[in-house]
Task: inverse folding
């Protein structure tokens, strides 16, 4: 335990890719900005081809299904990519 009195909690960072079901425009960029402020979402970035959204989140805070719903509730037209490799 450090002398600072701050306890570190375990974080399980997970990365998920979503297909974008619409063209990237100013409105979508605003929706991405809104989603970035959601507790548990660590990072959001567009794929270089602008056809997907890569999301890093804390799995100890959000389940993948909750993340899906949260992104859609911000207005983002997304569909989670299959995890099959």
Result:
């Amino acid at each position: 335990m450090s002398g600072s009195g701050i306890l570190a909690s375990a974080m399980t960072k997970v990365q998920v890719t979503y297909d974008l079901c619409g063209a990237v425009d100013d409105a979508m960029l605003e929706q991405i900005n809104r989603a970035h402020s959601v507790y548990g979402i660590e990072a959001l970035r567009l794929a270089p081809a602008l056809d997907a959204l890569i999301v890093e989140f804390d799995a100890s805070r959000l389940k993948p299904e909750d993340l899906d719903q949260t992104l859609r509730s911000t207005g983002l037209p997304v569909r989670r990519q299959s995890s099959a490799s």
